[in-house]
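Input/output pair, single chain:
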Amino acid sequence: MTTLAVEKHHWGSRRFLGIPAYRRLLATRLASQWGDGLFQAGLAGAVLFNPERQADPAAIAAGFAVLLLPYSLIGPFTGALLDRWDRKKVIVVANIARATFVLFTALAVGAGLSGLPLYVSALVVMGIGRFVGSGLSAALPHVVDEDHLVEANALTTTAGAVMAVIGAACAIGFRTLLGAGDGGSAWTTSIAVVGLLLSAFIASRFKAGVLGPDEVDEPHNALTAVARGLVDGAKATWRTPSVTAGLAALLAHRAAFGMSLMITLLLMRYSLEDVGILKAGIGGLGEVAVAGGAGVLLAGILTDRIVDRFGVGRTICGALLLTAAAQVGLGLPMTLPSILMASFVIIFAGQIVKLCVDTAVQHDVGDEVRGRVFALYDTLFNIAQVTAVTITATVIPLDGRSPGLILVAASLYLVGMAAYLLLSARKRQVQHAGLVSEDDSRHTIG
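Output:
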């Protein structure tokens, strides 16, 4: 394995925030993800921790499907359209549209609706949100030099994830003030509108076309372009070995994380008790979110430096080994303190892997197809988690205590590392054939 031959100069957050376009793009993301965090936590509280409703593994799995399947169903369409339409307009219109459906969802919660009526409204909110998330990611290379994409992406993604945690914490606070029943949950969920409309307003300040796409490499017929989105994204991904290998590692991590999340939810709801200042129940989920947010923050600070020191390959493999060890060492005791520590370590390491893959897409994939690759990325990312949650729901006991599932999750991280190494060998073959530029050497493991 090799490391970078030349030490890269780090800009730091102050330098990035001095770029007006980057600052505005970051503010757009922060407002949007605050609203997302509040909406998701409000909806989770309404469905999973509502004294007027019952939650079993099947209901939890259905809730995850609502929150995550839109990424899978709508992702290919967002990619094709983001590579065709002005990304600024897409972000603005999408935020306004989903703010409207947040209100519909809140009304459904307040009316005591469950099942299909509630889920359809929430599906629309999360589905339209893909236009915002994918659009912001695809637009980042338009506001930052590619030499600093790792650092810029780390700052943007980390700040956005932390803001989502803050939004979730706000939902818990509002729920305490407004009530845990259907009425209080409805009011809590509706407050997410504030973040979404603020995000739309900030994005509207960009000039038309400044976020791309610079070129449109698609058919003139929009329907044909949409239909081709997933296929084009898959072809571009396969042609970029750094993205293919990283995506395999990330999908394994996401599947294992889905299993762990289901276990954690059931333990918090039915099994664990308060330990001193640490709380079980929905308060415990808030603590898990804070621990995870701290892990995301630390990953944002350290990832660029770790990659510079060890290279992308060693970084990804080391992160997967760390998650496997944390899954076994901290997950198996199934106590409140150990779960919080495991959440921190697993989310920290997972965020490192995600930042490496995000940067590979932004650096190695052309702008004319980047939106479709990010859409495919989102699609597979969330299919992996929904599938893992659904399978786990069929075998896990109601109290969540399942050492066997914890060991299965740990093994998935190792499977991801093996897949990464195998697919990275293909990249070296491509490089030896002279099809990958020397500038791309930062993404090799050897």
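The CA atoms of residues 61 and 390 lie 5 Å apart. Confidence is low (pLDDT under 50) at residues 1-7, 435-446.
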